[in-house]
Amino acid sequence: MDFALLFNLFRKPKQAKVADVTIWHKYETLLPVPLVDGGARNPSGQIWRRLNGVKWEYQQDPETIEEFDARQY
After folding, report:
1. Cα–Cα distance for residue pair 29/65, rounded to 1 Å
2. Cβ burial, residue 67 (10 Å; 0-12/13-18/19+)
3. What gap in Å lies between CA 68 and CA 39, rounded to an integer?
4. Are 57 and 49 in contact (CB under 8 A)?
5. Which residue, 15, 29, 58, 62, shows the most beta carbons closer than 10 Å to its own?
6. Residues 6+ away with beta carbon under 8 Å from 38
7. Which residues, including other chains, have CB under 8 Å from residue 39's CB and lie 6 or more apart?
8. Per-residue pLDDT tens for 44-65?
């Protein structure tokens, strides 16, 4: 019998190392996500997300002229 497993049942759990998710992180998605400003998602432009309390917030970089031109052809 493994006594180490038995003693681990009564041990205080370790605290997880939580990364700071209040800053914006790049996010790749295939499904549409609701943007913070309520605007429509552009085909080009990077999606960013952050955790605000218990809810994820999404925003998108504005489309540059070069990205718009590349999307036209």
Report:
1. 23
2. middle
3. 17
4. yes
5. 58
6. none
7. 60
8. 778 899 888 888 899 988 877 8
